[in-house]
Amino acid sequence: MGRKWNNIKEKKASKDANTSRIYAKFGREIYVAAKQGEPDPEANQALKFVLERAKTYNVPKAIIERAIEKAKGGGEENYDEMRYEGFGPNGSMIIVDALTNNVNRTAPEVRAAFGKNGGNMGVSGSVAYMFDATAVIGIEGKSSDEVLEILMEADVDARDILEEDEAVIVYAEPDQFHAVQEALKGAGIEEFTVAELSMLAQNDVTLDAETQEQFEKLIDALEDLEDVQQVYHNVDLG
């Protein structure tokens, strides 16, 4: 199941290093979570989760505070959570999650990104059945056996615990996300290299070099869209 999560995150961070795109996406997600519930993460699990993710991407405190204050002030912007599914070259599968205040804008933009880059958008459910919602939590400084022992002592279940590069990645059911984190925090772990709720493909596919280049352009085009928050796929990018 290993997806080399630290490498994936490093690639994203490198891509976003010269822009404020990732901060803007987190700002929107934090605002939505804070507005839908209490603006206090201890009383709002959705907000707490987003803030945990934001920490792993080093989102500036000012961005976080501004989004929460905007929600407290009764910001008038309303966003809908949308999921689009489609296919890339050679039958590769893609899921696109968006937060939008204008569905009539977002859907055509996503469709155009697919169409211009060798893909096509499918109907709802056309690929999602090939993915599993999964909590992905990564740490450093412990072995997989040590992490397993910590989780067992806390009576927390995990699907898998793998050593990937210099990190240990825990894969668990989505509803175990906070339980896994709390168990690890209880063992003295304060920082997480990864803290995501993801959609993992049940089976990865490998593309030849030329097709992979085209596929990566498609993913870049989708991720560059303002309303798109997350893009998941089933391609092993190596």
TrEMBL record:
InterPro entries, per database record: Integrase-like_N (IPR017856), TACO1_YebC-like_2nd/3rd_dom (IPR048300), TACO1_YebC_N (IPR049083), Transcrip_reg_TACO1-like (IPR002876), Transcrip_reg_TACO1-like_dom3 (IPR026564), Transcrip_reg_TACO1_YeeN (IPR026562), YebC-like (IPR029072)
Key words, A-Z: Cytoplasm, DNA-binding, Transcription, Transcription regulation
Any one Pfam family match given in the protein's UniProt record, by short name: TACO1_YebC_N
Lineage top rank: taxon: Bacteria
Family: Belongs to the TACO1 family. YeeN subfamily.
GO biological process, one term: regulation of DNA-templated transcription
GO cellular component: cytosol
Domain TACO1/YebC-like second and third: 79-235
Residue stretches making up the TACO1/YebC-like N-terminal domain: 3-74
Protein name, as recorded: Probable transcriptional regulatory protein SAMN05421503_3332
Compartments (UniProt record): Cytoplasm
Gene Ontology terms, MF aspect: DNA binding
Coiled coil: none
HAMAP family assigned: Transcrip_reg_TACO1, Transcrip_reg_TACO1_YeeN
